[in-house]
Backbone:
């Protein structure tokens, strides 16, 4: 089996002359390759191109690569220099990337989220649903980094605000706080202090010797990126150049690229993905770089009014394809920092995550409509206030199994007394059961059979 090979660096001005001189009879076959993607729209790396051309002995893989690079170079969008050699990074707008940009604008903006909230008809129910989704990114991000806690157990830790005991629990709570920090600081410009603060919030108290919370690595730290077989796949730039490299990133991030009528326009999603890539590439911290990279991705999306990303968990999808996530970094680094490979991969992840978010919303809307019909026909409708309807519908949809006055108060953004009154009312009517756990009352829904057998 062929090992991955770095793409050849060619003088592209000589590619077509050589084809004409030495391979003129196959000119048309080379000409068909003159596109940024293959026939199926994939942005092919040289390593895969070699495999595809194994059966076509008459086609020189390096010349074929040169033809493709000519097409890509003509559409290249330059970004900024990265690494110790100040190699200029770039990307190409592929059809797949443009499709995801459109989907993001249609479904993930603050305006789109407000429309969804209004359209569902029951804002209280949606608050429960969305607040449940907020936790998904921090949990999935932790699991991607190796946390061995189930999603259900992790949600329980966050909801009940338990003190983290194990390293896994500390990782999950740290990631949750990072996401909250990203949201709370969305109106601030990027700075080294913000990046270090994010890292400190995320890893403090987990294993301080391993992570060095909030501190960039130094020359003594032997930091490399390895694959699942412990093969070194990336050696980050030298530690002494980190401050210099980050000053370039920060200037670029804080520069406005929002003017679509100008030549320097870059869509916020692409810019957020490039920030994500940069952190992984520079690897400024001894450990915990991935979670910082993903948090900064969200921070930039929040900053640019894509509020729905509070409820869109990219790490859930990344976790399912961790190998492809890593390879997208490798392909970009190997090919003269052509970030298109990484951007394409992240766009696929974002599209999958948006579709999951839309599906959750659609199912919630359908469930709410069915629920409204049922409680109207049963006679319950007139006996429940808005808060009680929301709690009941959440319990019926099994978004949550137990409720306390504190948890309801936080989810519905109401006072403790209002939440307590709503829960006690559901218990009094006969929908919920109630038990005492220490100094707190725990409420849970009775079976639907017993509820339906009750006359209201």
Residues:
């Amino acid at each position: 089996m062929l090992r991955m090979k770095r793409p050849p660096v060619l003088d592209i001005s000589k590619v077509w002359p050589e084809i004409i001189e030495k391979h003129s009879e196959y000119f048309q076959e080379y000409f068909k390759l003159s596109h940024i993607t293959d026939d199926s729209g994939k942005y092919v790396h040289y390593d895969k191109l070699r495999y595809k051309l194994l059966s076509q002995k008459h086609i020189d893989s390096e010349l074929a690569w040169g033809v493709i690079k000519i097409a890509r170079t003509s559409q290249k969008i330059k970004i900024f220099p990265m690494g110790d050699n100040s190699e200029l990074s770039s990307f190409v707008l592929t059809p797949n990337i443009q499709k995801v940009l459109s989907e993001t604008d249609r479904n993930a903006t603050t305006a789109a989220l407000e429309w969804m909230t209004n359209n569902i008809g029951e804002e209280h129910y949606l608050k429960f649903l969305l607040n449940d989704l907020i936790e998904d990114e921090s949990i999935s991000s932790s699991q991607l980094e190796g946390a061995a806690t189930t999603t259900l157990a992790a949600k329980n830790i966050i909801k009940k605000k338990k003190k983290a005991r194990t390293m896994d629990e500390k990782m999950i709570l740290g990631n949750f706080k990072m996401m909250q920090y990203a949201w709370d600081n969305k109106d601030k410009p990027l700075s080294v202090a913000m990046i270090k603060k994010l890292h400190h919030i995320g890893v403090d108290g987990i294993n301080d010797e391993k992570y060095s919370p909030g501190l960039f690595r130094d020359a003594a730290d032997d930091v490399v990126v390895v694959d699942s077989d412990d093969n070194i796949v990336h050696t980050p730039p030298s530690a002494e150049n980190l401050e210099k490299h980050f000053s370039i990133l920060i200037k670029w991030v804080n520069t406005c690229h929002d003017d679509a009528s100008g030549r320097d326009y870059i869509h916020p999603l692409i810019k957020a993905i490039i920030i994500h890539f940069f952190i992984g590439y520079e690897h400024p911290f001894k450990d915990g770089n991935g979670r910082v990279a993903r948090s900064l991705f969200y921070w930039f999306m929040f900053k640019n009014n894509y509020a729905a990303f509070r409820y869109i968990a990219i790490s859930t999808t990344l976790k399912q394809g961790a190998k492809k996530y890593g390879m997208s970094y490798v392909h970009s680094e190997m090919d003269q920092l052509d970030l298109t490979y990484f951007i394409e991969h992240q766009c696929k992840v974002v599209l999958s995550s948006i579709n999951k978010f839309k599906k959750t919303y659609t199912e919630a809307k359908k469930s709410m409509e069915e629920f409204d019909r049922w409680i109207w026909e049963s006679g319950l409708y007139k006996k429940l206030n808005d808060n009680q309807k929301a709690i009941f519908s959440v319990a019926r949809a099994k978004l949550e199994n137990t409720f306390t006055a504190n948890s309801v108060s936080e989810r519905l953004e109401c006072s403790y007394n209002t939440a307590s009154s709503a829960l006690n009312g559901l218990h009094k009517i006969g929908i919920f059961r109630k038990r005492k756990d220490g100094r707190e009352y725990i409420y849970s829904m009775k079976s639907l059979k017993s509820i339906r057998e009750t006359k209201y």
